[in-house]
Design goal:
This protein is an alpha/beta fold and 436 residues long. The chain contains 13 helices and 16 strands. The strands form 3 sheets. The protein has a 6-stranded mixed sheet with strand order 9-10-13-12-14-15. It has a 5-stranded parallel sheet with strand order 3-2-1-4-5, sandwiched between helices. Strands 6-7-16-11-8 form a 5-stranded mixed sheet. A hairpin with a 4-residue loop joins strand 12 and strand 13. Helix 3 packs across helix 4 and helix 8 packs parallel to helix 11. The chain is elongated and about 75 Å long.
């Protein structure tokens, strides 16, 4: 089995410790401390001559930078298993870096060397976890932006009393091709670690003007639950609403729709994540309903902007599920006779559909699929058509391009597979000082 082997010279191990690891099919990385370059170079040459293996010397200025270079090489080699030869104290320190610079995709096997007892020459940061976190933060802030500068799409419907935008994939520091570069969500199932995503969010906040306020992302459950910020927070939900300043709401998307809601009269905002399940369950209408019931908004005052998401040109579904969207509106499924029809989930998500527009459903016996569509079909959200900006609105600058059609600008699960990146729609209420 091909694996990476990290020999921790920085925290007290010696080259002789490598005898505890099988060199065959392995890529060896030497985390260098204060040993002389001659010692490391001599060992590297001897190892390569004896075993034919590859040796990478990690001798950057900080442990954070060295381990990040290790990660980049491991990613390039498409490896995920890393055996670490270190001391007991070295293990405690390296675990802190692992939590920030790696995800659960990587498997670490720590092997303590019994003959190596102390890091007499270590130069690791002091302060425990706080010192490591500070070192990592300083390092990622120095990384160059990739794919150009940060670019944010803005809806002309949302007035200036709110800050908002829809992100693209440009201007971040994520280096893995499908996550490059402004990936804004860290998942245990992907290779972009917490430190990198945190830095991407910091750069977005500075660019958009809400730094140092943190982003508050919906906790996606692919349903229609809405959290009113300030009440008890549920474990998961696909939308949230608030009238508070100092809170930046954000909804993720990588084909699914980030949808932003703003009431300039009542100064209330909402953000929703609408995938195909949430669309059928009526998450957009549920968000409007929460604004009306929770804050006294009038639906006719609310403006809605639908962000970048997959278009019918690139999105197909199993026919049985696709027909659920046809029942919402015939235009949602342009080829219903196909085995895998194309589906326009963005059109289906316009929160103005009522049961009167689909009369066959008002008298039909509910099925499991009907129950999914029932909430969006039985509510009159009351949002005015001219207050909705999506891909059908050709009179305004576009904020709803197809994510799958534009690989240079957007992440796409449909196009990129499981290791996909995530863009966001974000929105906040500006305080009085911001609007002066």
């Amino acid at each position: 089995m091909c694996e990476a082997v990290l020999l921790d010279l920085k925290h007290g191990c010696s080259p002789e410790c490598l005898g505890a690891a099988p060199p065959e099919e392995s890529h060896v990385f030497l985390l260098r401390g204060k040993r002389s370059p001659e010692d490391v170079s001599g060992f590297s040459g001897a190892f390569q001559s004896a075993c034919g293996g590859s040796v990478h010397v990690l001798d950057s200025g900080s442990t954070a930078e060295s381990l990040y270079r290790l990660k980049q090489t491991v990613d390039r080699l498409q490896l995920s298993s890393i055996r670490v030869l270190t001391t007991a104290q070295g293990r405690d320190v390296l675990l802190l870096y692992q939590q920030l610079l790696f995800t659960a995709v990587y498997t670490f096997d720590y092997v303590s060397c019994p003959s190596c007892t102390g890091p007499a020459h270590t130069d690791s940061p002091g302060g425990g976890g706080g010192g490591v976190q500070e070192e990592v933060s300083v390092f990622v802030q120095q990384l160059p932006a990739l794919k150009g500068e940060i670019t944010v799409l803005k809806s002309s419907l949302i007035p200036d009393c709110f800050g908002h935008g829809f992100t693209t994939r440009r201007g971040g520091v994520s280096s893995i091709p499908t996550l490059s570069s402004l990936n804004l969500f860290s998942s245990s199932r992907r290779r972009d670690p917490v430190a990198v995503v945190t830095e991407n969010r910091r750069r977005l906040a500075v660019h958009a003007g809400f730094h140092p306020q943190p982003l508050r992302l919906v906790k996606v459950n692919h349903g229609s639950d809405v959290w009113v910020v300030g009440s008890a927070e549920p474990e998961s939900y696909d939308a949230m609403v608030t009238d508070q300043t100092g809170v930046v709401l954000a909804a993720p998307g990588a084909d699914c729709m980030p949808v932003l809601f703003a009431d300039p009269v009542a100064k209330v905002i909402g953000a929703a994540h609408a995938g195909w399940r949430g669309t059928l369950m009526g998450v957009a209408a549920a968000t409007v309903d929460a604004m009306v019931k929770g804050f006294g908004c009038r639906a006719s005052d609310i403006v809605v902007a639908v962000g970048p998401s997959v278009g019918a040109c690139c999105y197909t579904m199993e026919r049985e599920t696709a027909l659920g969207f046809q029942r919402i509106h015939p235009d949602c499924v342009p080829d219903p006779e196909s085995t895998r029809p194309h589906v326009d989930i963005r059109l289906a998500n316009r929160p103005t559909v009522s049961v009167d527009q689909v009369p066959e459903l008002s008298h039909s016996k509910p099925t499991s699929l009907h129950r999914l569509t029932e909430r969006i079909l039985l509510q009159r959200a009351g949002v005015l058509p001219q207050h909705i900006q999506d891909h059908t609105d050709t009179g305004r600058p576009c904020v709803t391009p197809c994510t799958a059609c534009h690989p240079e600008d957007f992440f796409s699960h449909v196009r990129d597979g499981l290791n996909f990146g995530t863009q966001l729609g974000f929105l906040w209420i500006r305080d009085a000082a911001e609007t002066l």
